[in-house]
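Team,

Forwarding the record for the chain on the shared tracking sheet. I've put the sequence and predicted structure together so nobody has to dig through attachments.
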Amino acid sequence: MGAASGKTIDTGFVEEIRGALRGAIDLILPYRCAVCGRVSDTEDRFDSYNSLYMELYGQSPDLHICGKCLSSLNIQDEDRRWFLCLSNPVSGDPCPGLALYMPFEYKGLVELVIPKIKFGKKYELARFFGCVLGSALQGENISADLVVPVPLSKKRLEERGFNQAGEIAFPVAKLNGIPYADDCLIRIKETMRQSDITDKGMRAVNVSNAFRVSDDWDVTGLNVVVIDDVATTGSTLHEAALALYKAGASKVLCAAFAGNRSLKNAEPF
């Protein structure tokens, strides 16, 4: 073939055309809500979240939620966010009075989203929940030395591809200026899914002695926040906290994005 003709391509013009095409495609195929599938109408109201996400992850979020779904995410009143970790406290508990911060009820939007996160690989929704939980905790003036997610087993992590508790815990740590330690706790017992067990006593048995602190970590004297996505009986978070206490932690606070408790029964951490 012959030499190039010498004409130069106006890259600005090309980008302008590409932008116009993207805009046309958006009009034809608009963004859909990740929760309900309706057309997302909140793009112009997501600027602050987009900026935060860029700061945390170095990229723009691939998340779109419609106004109806967003408006149904209602935080509990301030005096209804704190609970005892165990919904049914037991005598002889090695860490009685263990507090649980849980600002949302497991219903409505949350009930729709959690399965999408766990079984639909929607990690972007977990990160969004993490930013919401982190912002809520900012108002509680929590001080701690570490934020630690409840770990999955190696098998469950391979199946899912990510740990939803970790995706929630990371922005909680960053927003509150607390170091994040996703490898601090190790799950040493292959457990059944808690959601598959209806008996409260069996839930406790299922996760009994399920965790230990990694040999790479010394938590002696530290204040630790341990994070999970959902708390029902509180048994999983309780066992995670117990492992931290056994390893020498000074104080542990449990936090979950949501749960199904109805009464306040613990004072703040």
